[in-house]
Structures are given as structure tokens and as C-alpha cells.
């Protein structure tokens, strides 16, 4: 075997493809296979491409780019696989290997480098973005931009997303940072709260409600000041070295807090934090520390149920509710029961499960920006099942899912009779927190 082929096998994790028996159990749960109808856009097909590359049957690595770039990374295939294929590892490795070999144009390279190294990991930059958006909302700029139809000219269909973004938190409110908030009533747990980068910039209100709910449930809440971006967007984009660097910073930032759990409120971030042990397992000086971190990482729904907050929820007025499951929360973190337990514990609601509830909505980090058309095809299918429930409230547990479902509501002309909310927003109302 040539050294080049051996290197390719190692980088694309060829050995892990041998567990795939090409049975096809992954096909019915793969959104891209169902929407695109191509074998190369299924987990089985992508794995076969890596096998062919590793066996020298494919010599042009770029052939793998489109199939792997169009993968949502929802990892539903892992739950359906009877032989335990580590598709997530193969996907991550393939994307990293492809990015390493791809020659980006200078503008694209500059944008990627700026976003991944200067913006997402920078708390000050993300705060600046959040404050700027608040200023955009509060001044006449937003009205002028909307009236001028300039939003239709924005790249990546950003104009459509602008219309459904949550209300921004004021700079004054942002400046009132507290690194510790004491539990109300009986103390049950000490937790460290992961704020996230996009969550804290654009969904700050949900973060604030999360902290209030945790304290209401009996948790002392610490916010590690040196925490940074989880690295999920970097890993999904093939920038694995950057993802590892961010993981190390977060592990170090949270180690000083003697917390029972590290709590997040975002399915995508939570999956990344949960897999820090996998990410750093080959680095002896970090492996044990990463494993300890991952073992403490929990979704907020798990902690709220453990604290029993769902036993004291105010009744709603006969609302019909459905739940859009976060893929990364369901398929990676394996958190499935707690969100449902919290939702169905609210008196007066009628919960209706949608058909194919576990199917991805098409958000997948920034997939709906960079692969808009493919994402909207998947969303439209999801909205068929959502509409069939006749629900007036759609609950989500991930910011990407929240924005995607809000967009779906607008595309189907269901507003204002149907609203999409993060689970935390819905629970806060039921507890009496505003």
C-alpha cells in the first residue's frame, strides 16, 4: 500500500467503515436521502465513498465534497444502525480531510477565518453583534431597511431570517452580568451554566430565563466568565483543530467551578459538549479532563425534571401543543423523555406528537444558510406533519430548530395563529417568570 493511500485511510477513518454491512436500515431515517433520492446522499452511500477512496477505487477526493457537505449531521442513522457504525466520527473526519485539501478562494478563506477565529470565539464580538442588533431594532434603520426591500438582496436569504429573529436584549441589560445566582428555597444542585456564543448574542433572553428557572428549581448557578464557543460550528465545517482548541478552553474555564453539572439549553451545543471526551480522547493530557467534563454535561430539561419543577406548573388555556425534537439532543445526547415530561406536565394543554417526530427540520447549525434550497425542501416536509397536528404551539429545544420552525410557520402562512417557542420560554410562562 502506498503511503498516500495509507494517509487517506487514516484521515477518512476508513477502518470504521468496515462495520457498515450496507443493509440500508439508515435510508428511511436519512432526511437527505429521502429528499434528494440519491444513494450518494445517504449514510450508506457516503460510507461506501470513503471505502472506495480507501481502496484506491476513487482517486479524486473532491468527488466526496458534495455528498458530505450536504449531510445534515443529524446522526439519525446511528440510532437505526444494527452494527453500531460510528457515522458521526466518519463524517467529522471526512469533512476535516476535505477542508484540508480544498483550495478556497481568498474571499472565502478570509470569511471562514474571520468567523471561526475572530467572531464566534470572541465574547466581546458576539456581544457587539447582539448590541448592534438591538440598536438596529430600536432605531428607524429596521423600518427603512424593510420598506426598501433591501432584505431581499441580502446573501444566504438572510432577509427571510431577519423577519423572525427574537427581540434583542438591551446593552444595559447585557451589562448586568452576574457570575453567580443563588438558588431559591431548598438547595438541590450546584450547576455551571453554559451560555454559548450565538445563544448569548441573539437568544440572550432565553439564557436569562434558563438561569431564573434553574434558581427557581433550587439550583445555585455559576456562569464561568472565561467560557467560549462550544466549537460545534467549527467541527461541522471541518475545522477540527479549532474545535479542539475551544473545547480545551471550556474545560479549563469550568474546572474551577465545583459544580454537580454543566448545564446547557441548546441541543447543538449540548451535543458538542457531551462529546468533548470523544474529541480529545487521543490527547493524553486532556482525555481524562474531557471525560469528566462530558460526564457532567446535561441539558437543562434533565436538571429541571430532577429538581421536580414540573410538579408546580400553572395551567394553560386548552392549548394544542406539538414538539419538534432536536436531532443532536435526541441522537447524540440521548435526551428524549425529559422535554416531553416537562411539556405534558403543564395542566390544560393537549399534546399531539407529529408524524416522523424524530426527522430533522433542516436547520443543522448553519446548513439552512449555506444549503438553503435543500434545507427548505426538508422543512416543507416537516411542516406537513406539523400542520397535521393542528397545534397552535410548536416547542423546540435548540435555537436553530426554533428559527427554522418560525420560518416554516411563515412559509405556510400560519402566523399569528401558530407560534414556535423554545421550551424554556414556554416553561417560564408556566412558572410565572417573565
Features:
434 residues, Fumarate Reductase Iron-sulfur Protein, Chain B, domain 2, Glutathione S-transferase Yfyf (Class Pi), Chain A, domain 2, 4-stranded parallel beta sheet, 9 strands
If you had to describe this structure to a student in words, what would you say it looks like?
The structure is a single chain. About 55% of the residues lie in helices and about 5% in strands. By secondary structure, the chain is an alpha/beta fold. The chain has 4 domains: about 5-100, Orthogonal Bundle (Fumarate Reductase Iron-sulfur Protein, Chain B, domain 2), CATH 1.10.1060.10; about 110-160, no CATH class; about 170-305, Up-down Bundle (Glutathione S-transferase Yfyf (Class Pi), Chain A, domain 2), CATH 1.20.1050; about 310-430, Rossmann fold, CATH 3.40.50. The strands form 2 sheets. Strands 1-3-2-4-5 form a 5-stranded mixed β-sheet. It has a 4-stranded parallel β-sheet with strand order 7-6-8-9, sandwiched between helices. Strand 8 (about 395), helix 24 and strand 9 (about 420) form a beta-alpha-beta unit. The model has no long low-confidence stretch (mean pLDDT about 95). Its cofactor is [4Fe-4S] cluster. It comes from Sporosarcina soli. Pfam families: CCG, Fer4_8.
